[in-house]
Every structure is written in C-alpha cells, then in structure tokens.
Amino acid sequence: MILGRRRAMTNYALLSFFSFIAIAPVVSITLLALRDPAISGTSLTLTGGLHPENLVRAWVAAGFEHSMRSSVIVAISVVVASSVLSVIAGYAFGLVRFGGSSVLYYALLLGLMLPQEATIIPLFYGLNAIALTDTYWALILPQVAQSIPFGVFWMRAFFRSVPTELIDAARIDGAGTWAILWRVLAPIARPAITSMVLLFFVWAWNDFLLALVLVSDEQLRTAPVGLTFFRGRYNTEWTLLAAGSLIVALPVVVIYLFMQRHFIRGVLEGALK
Amino acid sequence: MIRRSIGRSRLLPYLLVLPGWLPYALFVLVPLAATVGFSFTRWNGVSSPRWVGVENYLSLLGQPVLRDGLSHALLLVVFFSFLPITIGLLLASVLSTARLRGVALFQTALFLPQVIASVVVAMVWRWIYSPGGPLTVILRDAGLEALAHGWLGDFDLALPAVGLVGTWVSTGLTLLLFLAGIARIPSELYDAARVDGASAVREFFSITLPLLRPEIAVALVLTMIRSLRTFDLVYNMTQGGPGTATVVPAYEIYRRAFLTGDVGMAAALAVGLTAFILVISLITLRLVER
C-alpha cells in the first residue's frame, strides 16, 4: 500500500529521534574518552583534537592487562562449555523421548526466571568452603550453569522445528543418534547456534555480580569489576574513566556491530519462543 | 513415532542430558535450596549458623529500610517496564502501517544499549548526571536552573535518575519486539479497517493491541524481572545513597550477605525477591497469553 509522504517522513523522524537517544550517550562517552587529556572536569570539549593514546593510559592505570585476560579466559570457557552442553541436551530433549524428560526439562526452565540473587549467597559460602573462590572455576562453573537453561530451551525449540523427514532419511541411511546430530543437524543448526553463542558471550563478558562476589584477587578480576575498582581510585578523572569504559565495552560492541542480525534474532525469538 | 525411534539405547538420552544438567543442579538448584535453608537461620557468615525458624521472614517487612527498598523497586518497575512498553507501543502503532526501508540501521542503533556492560552504562550516566555534566548544561540552557545540579546526589531525584537509565536501556528492546510482532500481523487487516473508515486510534485498540499480546507479555516479564533485580546500576551509580534513597532489594541482599554479616536476613530477602519474581512472571504470562 502506498504511504503518504508526510506519514513516511514522520515515521523516519520518530525512528531517528529514538535512535539518536539510544546512541548519543555511547557516542559522547567515546568522544569524552578521546578528548585532550589536558582538559579536566565533565565538559565535552573537542578543541584539543582526538587522543587515542588515552586508551593506552587507561589500560595501564586500570591494570586491564590482567582483567582483560581474565575476562577472555572466563568468557571463552563459558561460551564453549555452555554451547556444547546446550546443543547435546537440547537435542535429547527435542528429539528423543525418555522417561522423566519433562520433569528434567521443566526444572531447567525454572532457571530462566531465577534472579542471580537466588543463588549468590550459598555460591559464595559454598565455593569458599571448598577453596574454589578466587579461581577461574568460581566464575566459569556458575556461569555455565546459569547459561544452560536458555541454551537448552533455545536448541530444543530448534531441533523440534526440523522436519522429521530429514531425520527419517538419515536413519534409513543407517545413521546413528550421534551421527544424526553432528552430520545432519549441526550444519543446519548453524544460525541458531550462532545466535546462542553470541548471547552467551555477551552475558559472560558483561556479568558483574558473580565476578564481584566470587573473586577478590586483583589478578583474576574480570574487566567490568576492574572498571568498578578503577572508578574508585580515579573518581573524577573523567577522560580516563571514559577510556576505561570504552575498553570494557568495545569487544562486545564490535562483535555486535558485525553480527547484529544474529544477535537481535536471538534476543527477539529467544524471548518469544 | 519418530521421536521414539531416534534413541535406540535407553541410556543414551540420559548421557546426553546429564553433562548439562549436572552443573545446573550443582550450581543453581543446590544453591537455591541452600538459600532457603540459610533464610531460617541467623548467621554472620563465620561462626556456626543458629536456627531461628521463620523469624527472618517475620521481621522482613518490619524494617523501614526494606519497606523503602520494596517501594523503590516498584517505582523502578514504572521506569524499567511501564515507560518503555508505553513508548514502544505508541511508536510501534505510529509505525505499524509503514513498510519502512532502512529499518536495519535503526534496529542496530535502538538495540545498542542492550549489549553494553551495565558497569559501563552506569559510568556513562554518572557522567551525564554529574554536577556540571551534560544534563546540567542542557537544563541550564533550557532555563531550568532549579534542576541543574547533580541528580545522583539529590534525595528526590536519585531514584528517578537510576530509573531513567532503565528506560533508556529497555525502550529499544520493547520497540523492536513490538515492531517484529506487528510485521507478523497481516496487512490486509489494516487495509480492511481503513476501508471501513476506522480511525488510527480504533485501529490500534482493535487490531494492534490484541494481536500484540504475546509480545506485550514477554516485554512485561523481561523488563519487570530486570527492574526487580536491579543491582549493577545501583551498585555502580549510587551505592544505595544518598542516605537510603536508592536502596533496592538486590542491593540490600548483597550488602547484608557480604558486607555486614547478616546472612540469614539476606537469604530471606533473596527468597522473597525470587518468589515475587516467579509469581509476577507466571501471572503476567497467564493473564496476557490466556
């Protein structure tokens, strides 16, 4: 149907306005991070040109050398482990019938709605009692456990959507349960798996509460918690704080910009299934 | 039955499910049960816990700081949930009949706040709200001198200021959810309504709103959970202050469990918060999906 030109203009104007509000704070903090380091205070003045070297100063001052390494180690471990476990379990829940499957599945679904506050207290005291706090395990294991409900839910929904003829055909060709998963289903599951992996990565990278509570060793601290402590020491040095913020946000934002279609689909469909 | 024919071995499905289920049970279900257990004790985190029955629950609502926390959390629901959903619906209804080009670009921008670490979001808004920061400059230029001071240090403005950050984060999400939902609605419905001379308002209430029910349910659940468990923003923007102006349940749980050695109360509060979130989510899904 043909849209009135005025109506189209209004639509674009509205979308532009809200898009502007969404990105303006992000763009401003980026500019703040790059302003002339001689300027202090909160004003965003770019008269001194752009200074990417601020990022290096923030990197050194905030000790990102350690916290970024922790973040990378934790995020990659969490993403790999959660993805593999979710695909395998989602396959079983989606396509294999077995006793107790619905009880096991609904128990997992409970995890979709639980706030981290429901588990954080015993996680700390329990892991502390077995000397696992202040290790990467303290960050990796709970995060894997918290990612699995969504992963299983997501992969199960995908496997259920696969036409049964495909599986029948593979079975007639003599493929076993394992072969069906890896040779027949995994290739067509790629888009679904990609969305899930991206979500897992963003959650793992941005997690704050677990990293704040379960790790106090500066060497193991993740980047978001590192940024919090950095703020504590450089309370009003806005250029450095903005540069530190940029460093913490950048890996996720870059991946998002390249893979946004997969990512948005994951969130929207994941929410609706 | 295809589903049955896949697993030849009886053991195999359990072997497939177990590796994922085990960490979930150990690091989610067991701690959940332990939180409930802790909530019946008085414990400072060091000495041995003392069983006190339901005492913690009885005193939960007797404490002014917790009552405040609850009312703060409910105010945050307005900012994190109702505002984004209302704005999202209004916008989506304006856009509903449009088949716009170049939406992908807007999508990328609108969704951006979702992927930024909450610590960074908090930092950005601390700067925006700071005395002399961008917001005070804008307000001063607009002649609103009375409001042009650091919002996060103001007893009345600190909580709405944190709430507005939630509005900023969630609006893009609700709008995209609703736009995706509207794209699903057959355009013939709108054409027919227009042929019948229905007004835009009528169109919204008799087509858009009822057909968007699943999306609205999801948006409500997602954003309400987000607002009720607000922790990162409060921790990084205000630490509950000034005074107790921005104390919320999740922050109080953290403070009591790990800073002041009041683990039993913290656990009771955590159980209460979790139950509240579960009940609200289930009711919302029921009501709207029917």
Structure description:
The complex is a heterodimer of chains A (273) and B (290). Chain A has 273 residues and is mainly alpha-helical. Chain A has one domain: Orthogonal Bundle (MetI-like fold), CATH 1.10.3720. Chain A is built from twelve helices and no strands. By secondary structure, chain B is mainly alpha-helical. The longest helix of chain B has 32 residues. The two termini of chain B are 30 Å apart. Chain B is globular and about 75 Å long. Chain B has one domain: Orthogonal Bundle (MetI-like fold). The chains are: A mainly alpha (273), B mainly alpha (290). The interface between A and B is large, with 103 and 104 residues.
Biggest interface, chains and residue tallies: A-B, 103 and 104 residues
Q: What oligomeric arrangement do these chains adopt?
A: heterodimer
**What kind of sheet is the major sheet of chain B?**
2 strands, antiparallel
Helix and strand run of chain B: HHEEHHHHHHHHHHHH
Give the radius of gyration of chain A.
23 Å
- Average pLDDT of chain B works out at 89
Estimated share of beta-strand residues of chain A:
under 5%
Helix content, binned percent of chain B: over 70%
The CATH architecture classification of chain B is: Orthogonal Bundle
Classification by helices and strands of chain A: mainly alpha
What structural class results from the helix and strand content of chain B? mainly alpha
